[in-house]
Design brief:
Helices cover 10% and strands 48% of the residues. It has 3 helices and 17 strands. Strand 6 (116-125) and strand 7 form a beta hairpin.
Length: 282
């Protein structure tokens, strides 16, 4: 297995998630959000080989009371015991944002790849309209903020509230991960039924076109990136798929808590009965 491809997928899984299918931030407040305490666990596979786990969770910041309008999103990814012996990978990415205004306040990455360790954080100062980035606790740059700019994880709330029937099927959203502000395009492809350990889901399949994006947003040549979202509101990320030159990586939902309730039943619409018509089933 190519270590570079594997670590790219594991490290930037949450960034891929945050890079997909965006709706405008103005309409978010009219929809529901995930609750503090909600979480979703995923198994990560390279082709048929299980290589790691991931967890997406939502919580109130420790220094905020229950009525605060801030929310923290945390995404952790780590290689399993088999891969750990060959090339350990561990990542925690966290975003704290104002829910009602959909404005990120603080974004942090803590990543380990083999014997390398990297930390990075962004502070969003909306009064001064600038973002301040630090790496390894050392200031790296200060950049002007454009209106409606999000960090990769804060995009998840926009993604989860998109209505495919009422909204356009393609969007562009401004986002920064500490460098320049870039635009990410995403397009709706089709509906698709997915089998998971939790049950059967009807999902919307989305593809991502990243244009001229730098660093972590770049995809490998000839690779493809897909996101599968349930049809709930807010939608649950059911599966993330990244096709590469050799095989594909998949992050698939295994369990979780949604709106304070354990996911234990299939989320699926009733299917129509087949009828015999002119010599065939329809």
């Amino acid at each position: 297995m190519n270590q570079c491809i594997f670590t790219r997928f594991l490290f930037y899984l949450p960034i891929f998630c945050g890079s997909l299918f965006i709706q405008t931030t103005e309409s978010l407040c009219a929809h529901e959000n995930f609750k503090s305490g909600d979480y979703f666990n995923y198994d990560i596979y390279w082709s048929f080989l299980k290589v790691g786990q991931a967890r997406l969770e939502f919580s109130k910041p420790k220094d905020q009371d229950a009525q605060s309008d801030t929310l923290t999103i945390t995404f952790t990814v780590h290689s399993n015991s088999l891969i750990e012996k060959i090339y350990p990978v561990k990542s925690e990415i966290q975003s704290t944002l104002l829910i009602d205004e959909m404005k990120p306040l603080y974004y942090r990455k803590n990543q380990q790849e083999g014997d390398k360790h990297r930390t990075m954080e962004i502070q969003f100062d909306w009064l001064k309209q600038e973002s301040i980035t630090k790496e390894q606790d050392n200031p790296r740059n200060s950049l002007p903020l454009e209106p409606n700019t999000l960090d990769p994880l804060s995009l998840l709330l926009s993604i989860s509230n998109h209505n495919f029937k009422e909204a356009p099927s393609a969007f562009t959203q401004k986002v920064t991960d500490g460098g320049s502000i870039v635009s990410i395009d995403a397009n709706y492809l089709k509906e698709q039924e997915l089998q998971t350990k939790v049950g059967t889901f009807e999902s919307n399949k989305i593809t991502v076109a990243t244009k001229e994006l730098r660093g972590v947003f770049n995809k490998s040549p000839n690779s493809e990136l897909y996101l599968y979202m349930s049809k709930d509101t807010p939608a649950i990320l059911i599966k993330l798929q990244s096709k590469v030159r050799v095989g594909s990586f998949n992050a698939i939902l295994t369990d979780g808590i949604y709106k304070g309730t354990t996911i234990s039943k299939p989320i699926k619409r009733p299917t129509q009965k087949k009828h015999w018509h002119r010599g065939r089933f329809r």
